[in-house]
Amino acid sequence: MAFGIDDAIAAALKVLDKFVPDPEAKAKAEGELRTSLQLWDKGQTDVNAIEAANPNLFVSGWRPFIGWVCGAALAYQYVASPMLMWLASSMHIALAAPPKLDGSLWELVTALLGMGGLRTYEKVRGVAAK
Asked: Can you give the pLDDT at residue 104?
């Protein structure tokens, strides 16, 4: 479930409803809240763009690194580990079961794939940087 600016504003408006009974003051507070959240979001987007443009792999390469780590972890968990256990059992070798990875790996992979979908959308629309 995504949590965006509109969700933050909706949550803040529930608080405003309790403490600001005046509709005019409430509308002004909502406008200020919306503006500040949008400025914060734009600031984060600017930082992300600067970070991604950096030629240093340790600055701009952390997203691909996380992608490769997630890919390797999934390959280990769902391909290598079961194949190793199958091979050991078919050769009648007693082998302790390899450790299982945390189930929250899927949350990270799902987020990465979601961002990958946005990147594909940018490429299709012709607005991608590279």
From this structure: 77
pLDDT in tens, 51-67: 778 787 766 777 778 77
Model-wide pTM > 0.70:
no
Cα dihedral sign, 71-101-4-57:
negative
* Nearest of 103, 99, 110 to residue 76 by alpha carbon: 99
Rounded Cα distance, 41 and 107, in Å: 22
| 114 and 61 within one domain | yes
Is residue 91 domain-shared with residue 40, that is, in the same domain? no
Count of structural domains within the chain? 2
Residue 21 in this model has a pLDDT that exceeds 80: no
Query: What's the maximum distance between 2 C-alpha atoms anywhere in the chain?
Result: 77
Domain range for 127 is 56-130
DSSP category for residue 96: P
Distances (CA, A) of 102 to 28, 63, 74, 105, 127: 46, 20, 11, 6, 36
Both 87 and 129 in one domain: the answer is yes
